[in-house]
Amino acid sequence: MPKMKTKSGAKKRFKLSGTGKVITAQAGKRHGMIKRTTKQIRNQRGTTVMAEPDAVVVRKYFLPNG
Fold it and tell me: The pTM is what?
């Protein structure tokens, strides 16, 4: 039985924390900043913890080896 490979696109976009949570970039920060509020732009800096239903899929299929 062959080993499962990590998806190469996923390893560039996601990171696992020490407790197994999936860390990802904030959504909605790529373009269209002029129509967003200053507060929204400020709150979208850095990274965030992915929602658990989505994180289950990422851990199981995209990052099987951690």
Answer: 0.85
